[in-house]
Amino acid sequence: MSNDRDAQRVALNRLGATIFGYVYVYWWAKRANWRHRIEKGAIGLLILFLVVLLLELGLEIFGFEMARSRSIATQLVFILAFSVALYSKLREWGARRQELFFLQAAKKTAELLGADREHLVNDGTIEKLLGIFHATFRRKGPISTTLALRTEDDRLEIRHWYPPSGRTHDVTFHPNEGGAGYSYANRCIVYIPRTHLGHAIIQTLGDDDPYEMVGGLYIRGDANTAYRSILSVPVVIFGQCYGTLNFDSARPNAFKRIDFQQAMVYGSIVAQLLRMRREGEVGSR
Fold first, then answer.
1. Which one, of 121, 102, 122, 125, lies nearest residue 112 by Cα?
2. Can you tell me the distance from the alpha carbon of 91 to that of 87, in angstroms, rounded to the nearest whole number?
3. Contact call for residues 56 and 67 (beta carbons, < 8 A)
4. C-alpha distance across the termini of the chain, in Å
5. What is the distance between the alpha carbons of residues 126 and 133, in angstroms, rounded to a whole number?
C-alpha cells in the first residue's frame, strides 16, 4: 500500500513539474513582448504625469488657483511606473555591457586567430578560446565552459574544460542524452534555465516560432550539484556537427536571448577551427 502511495506521489510530482515547466517556458518565450508593452505603457504614464505637472505649474505662474488632489492610488501608480521605467533602463544598460564584453571577446579572438595555421589548430588554441568565451559571461555566475566533441562511436565526450581546474572526471553523452546530447543530435540551442526542474528551452534555427520545451534533459550527478542553469549550442558548420559548446552557471536563469546569439557565434568559430584541423589531418595522410 505504501509503495502505491509513493508511486502516486512521484507521478504527481512529475506531472506538476511538467505543467510548471510548460508554463515557465511559455512565459520565458513570450515575456519579451509583454515586458516591452509594459515598459512602453510605464513610460507613457510618466510622460502623462510630467505633462500634467507642467500644466499645473504653468497655470499657477499665470495666477490660476488649482486644487491639487494627489490620491494614494495616483501616487502608487506613479511609483510603479517609475520603477518599471527604471528597471527597463537598468536592463538596457546591462545588455549594452554584455555587448561590450562580446566586442572585447571578438577583439581577443581575432588576435588569437591571427596565428599561423599550424599553431592555430592545436589544443592550446581551443582552450584559450574557451577562456575568452568564458570571460564574456563573467556577469552570469559562470562555473565552467566546456567543449564536447564527437567520438568514433558517435557519442559526445567533453575534451576541453575552462578553467582547467574544473575538470573532475571524463564525461560522455549519447545523442539526445542531456542538454549537450540533445543539442548535438538536433542541431539546436538547448537552455536549461533551472536545473532543479530538469526542463529545457529549445531554440531551433530557422523557424518562425523557434521556442519549445523538452522535459527531463538535465542529468543530475555529484559533480554538477552547483550548476543552476546550462546553455549548450551545437558546434556546426556547413551541415557538419563536431560537438557542442557548453556554458554552466551557478545562477538560475542566468542566460538571455542575446547570450544565445553570442554562444552560437562562438560555436561557429570553434567549428571552423575543427574543420581546419580535420582538413589538415586529411592532407597530411
1. 125
2. 6
3. no
4. 67
5. 10
Cα dist. 153→147, 149, 185, 232 in Å?
17, 11, 14, 21
pLDDT tens profile 121-135: 676 888 889 999 999
Q: For residue 172, what is its C-alpha cell?
A: 560522455
As its CATH architecture, domain 98-283 has: 2-Layer Sandwich (3.30)
CA neighbours closer than 13 Å in the CB half-sphere of residue 37: 4
Nearest by Cα to 206 from 190, 189, 230: 189
Kindly give the pairing relationship between strand 211-214 and strand 229-237: unpaired
Kindly tell me if the per-residue pLDDT of 255 is higher than 80: yes
CB atoms within 10 A of CB 52: 11
Q: What is the largest CA-CA distance in the chain?
A: 94
Which residues in the chain are classed under CATH 3.30.450.40? 98-283
pTM: 0.73
Alpha-carbon span 265 to 203, nearest angstrom? 15
Cross-strand bridge partners of residue 233? 245
